[in-house]
């Protein structure tokens, strides 16, 4: 069993966003929405949609633009929990920087909050979780949505 299951359509949406930004040598950020499930006492997360709003990016940093929040809230409302935040590191690898760890700890501290970091240039994709200040890689799978 994996910790996070991403629907392939949601992952494709995120990767499209990240590739588009990478073409301009920019990072990008967004949220995965979904739900928490359990199977035989083990919890796992399903990420079923990717949403974003206007980004304020450079080649080495990204955040949501001031003013993006009402639109973002609109896109999140009623679609499930934020189960992961996702951002790109175009060309410098999929890892959690010190800033990323701080961001995760201050904004995504829930038991079922994960961080997805993608390097669309190198084709790297990793999921992380921060437990008590320690970063660890989390297992994940990208799956086709059940028909
Ligand atoms: Zn980062």
Tell me what the structure shows.
With 147 residues, the protein is of the alpha/beta class. Helices cover 23% and strands 42% of the residues. It contains 3 helices and 10 strands, in the order E-H-E-E-E-E-H-E-H-E-E-E-E. The strands form 2 sheets. The chain has an 8-stranded mixed beta sheet with strand order 9-8-7-6-2-3-1-10. It has a two-stranded antiparallel sheet with strand order 4-5. A hairpin with a 4-residue loop joins strand 4 and strand 5 (62-64). It is globular. Bound molecules: zinc ion (ZN).
**Radius of gyration using CA atoms only:** 14 Å
The unique ligands bound to this protein are: zinc ion
- Reading the helices and strands in chain order gives EHEEEEHEHEEEE
**How many strands in all?**
10
Count of structural domains = 1
Helix content: 10-25%
Mean pLDDT comes to 94
CATH topology name, in short, is Cytidine Deaminase, domain 2
Spans of at least 5 consecutive residues with low confidence: none
Principal-axes shape call: globular
* Corresponding CATH superfamily: Cytidine Deaminase, domain 2
The share of residues in extended strands comes to 35-45%
CATH class descriptor name? Alpha Beta
Structural class: alpha/beta
- Major sheet description: 8 strands, mixed
Under the CATH scheme, which architecture would be assigned? 3-Layer(aba) Sandwich
Write a compact overview of the structure shown:
This protein has one domain: Cytidine Deaminase, domain 2 (3-Layer(aba) Sandwich), CATH 3.40.140. 23% of the residues lie in helices and 42% in strands.
């Amino acid at each position: 069993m994996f910790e996070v299951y991403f629907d392939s359509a949601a992952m494709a949406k995120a990767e499209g966003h990240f590739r588009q930004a990478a073409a301009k040598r920019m990072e990008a950020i967004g949220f995965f929405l979904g739900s928490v499930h359990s199977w035989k006492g083990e919890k796992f997360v399903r990420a079923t949609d990717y949403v974003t709003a206007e980004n304020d990016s450079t080649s080495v940093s990204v955040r949501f633009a001031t003013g993006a929040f009402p639109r973002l809230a609109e896109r999140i409302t009623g679609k499930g929990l934020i189960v992961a935040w996702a951002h790109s590191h175009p060309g410098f690898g999929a890892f959690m920087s010190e800033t990323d760890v701080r961001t995760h700890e201050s904004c995504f501290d829930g038991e079922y909050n994960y961080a997805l970091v993608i390097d669309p240039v190198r084709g790297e994709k990793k999921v992380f979780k921060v437990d008590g200040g320690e970063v660890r890689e989390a297992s994940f799978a990208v799956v086709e949505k059940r028909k």
